Amino acid sequence: MGQYSIKDVETLSGLKAHTLRIWEQRYGFLKPERTDTNIRYYTDEQLKLIIKVASLNRNGMKISKIATLKKDELSNMVLKIHEEAFLPNDLLDALILAMLDFDEKRFEKTLSTAILKLGFEKSFVELIFPFLMRTGVMWLTGSVRVVQEHFISNLIRRKICVAIDSVFGEKNENPKKFILFLPEGETHELLLLFTEYILRKYNHEVVYLGSSLPFNELEYINQAFNPDFLVTYQTVSNGQITFEEYLEKLCAAFPHCKIIAGGAQVAAGDIKIPLNCKPVTSIESLLAAIG
Fold it and tell me: CATH fold of 6-164, please?
């Protein structure tokens, strides 16, 4: 069973803690559990209920009306909204609920519908990237279980790989050379894969090295490929060296390369970025860093 703090619920539902507390007091249908030290937390079922309530409320239904709905009525109304959804927030709710329920069909349908309506790149920018930012924080703290992470990551990975295989590069008079990799111990590849898609779309030269690359292997590929950019992301610290220290080491070892770095720790603003390094916290900042 999952155990989510009120901050986790804020992140996943988009609701403020103040709003949640008011709803609990006035309507009584949101009743968090309590730890032995009287700290509130929410279960999987409670989190799903909150996301459904937030989705209905965002689409114009008053909370006083939502509070009177039976469980099946509420679920059916939310399902209808998500099936007809076009706005990113509604689609995002649908993806998070699919993750919590391990509902592959719903996740695939939601993502495929978004890609059909918005196109692959816009779907990633407006839907998948925010989804990864929300859930990435949860994976980092352990609030979302590893099995949920693997379930969703593999589904998204399949979509990105198909997009990479089918991309047709645009004409580029000044292509640059990129090495894409994750530090040793880091395995969260989705943002790195999407970066490969973007770079190949603009017809840059890319060497994709994937996850958990030993540092000394970078020195070898640098001599062989002579890249303009090194691109890396980190979600979880490997415990031996901080990402800030790793970036400093990277910049010192490869002073003639531009370093692009991102991931949950960069997005949270928890680390100092070296001068020769461009932080990536959005697709727009990625494109700006590439120039």
Answer: Multidrug-efflux Transporter Regulator; Chain: A; Domain 2 (1.10.1660)
